[in-house]
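Running this now, will post back.
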Amino acid sequence: MTVSRFVNGANVRADSKRKIEAALKELHYVPNLAARAARSGSHRLGILFNNPRSSNLGDFFMGAFRQAGEDGNQLLIEPVAGHADPIDAVRKVLDAGVAGIILPPPLCDSLDALELVWQARVHALSFATADPRSHSSAVLINDFEGARAMTRALIQLGHKHIGFVRGDVTHSPALRREEGFRAAMAEAGYSTRPDWIMSGDFSYRSGLEAATALLALEERPTAIFASNDDMAAAVLAVALGNGLSIPADVSVAGFDDTPIASLMWPQLTTVHQPIAEMAAAAVGMLDRLIRDRRSEGLPPHEHLVVPYELKLRESTGPAPQKGR
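Update: finished.
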């Protein structure tokens, strides 16, 4: 009883305190913070984030904090960029005693990361993955269908010559978005030219490099579809810097519908991914799964596919006429 009182923060006699501290040190005792939080009716949830410069990070945290406040849970936020090995970020959050953890791309697709969480008997939730695993929960949109729908919208505007800027290929959404683009082009009977497919990594800088190369081609595409809004914004900036009119000379489309999409001029056509709502759903799902846990084995899991929506704005328009 004295040890329990000491571990939980109560005052004990000085001689007892010294003995307890020595015993705890010898036994390498670490308090189970998750269990302590559970007894109080709340849970500690870990959230990792990968790109601190991402345009949608603010919306993500807004949704997560709002839901955690409603549920009475605590959030432990850890940047992946602060670790030489991303797996170390997962270990740090697990060592802090969380009952559930939200993994962003590309960690959400890492079997090593998921296995580490499973071994700790902690609920894993893959956020914005395009490849949800059968033994972990996930909140996502259909990246393939979103990209295919956007490409079809460009084709309906008369565009046959469409360039594409890839995202980071270590992220499953980047792969599915490229697949959706290629599928729509093939369905329409149009070819995808290798010199019109540019590599990017979801950053604005990579979008600048891709757009500079695309727009310097002797025969340039009439529309450019970038795998996220940050890269699309860079494409639009390079086009305007080259004296091109948007969308009269070239149409530009993105993906995600981050705040930058509606703040720039012209406003960006994009695929709306409701990041704040998805983050809230992820936090709420973890809370529910933890409370409903039914076994001592791997935790139960859910997959939630959230609808996407096309946002057709001023950055896209009819394909320019031949010879223009």
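The chain has a mean pLDDT of 89. More later if anyone needs it.
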